[in-house]
Amino acid sequence: MPDLSSELALALDLARTAEAEILPRFRTVTATQKPDGTEVTEADREAERVMREQLSDARPDHAVLGEEFGDTGPDDARYRWVLDPVDGTAGFTIGVPLFGTLVALLEDGVPVVGVIHFPALDETVYAARGEGCRFRTEADEMAVRVDPVPSVADATITTTALHSSDVTAAPDHVPQPLREQLAVGGRMVIPIGPRGGYQTLWQFVKQPDGEMKAYNKGGVAFVPFTGKGIRGNEEGGGWPP
Question: Which residue of 14, 71, 82, 233 shows the fewest CB atoms closer than 10 Å?
Answer without folding.
Answer: 71
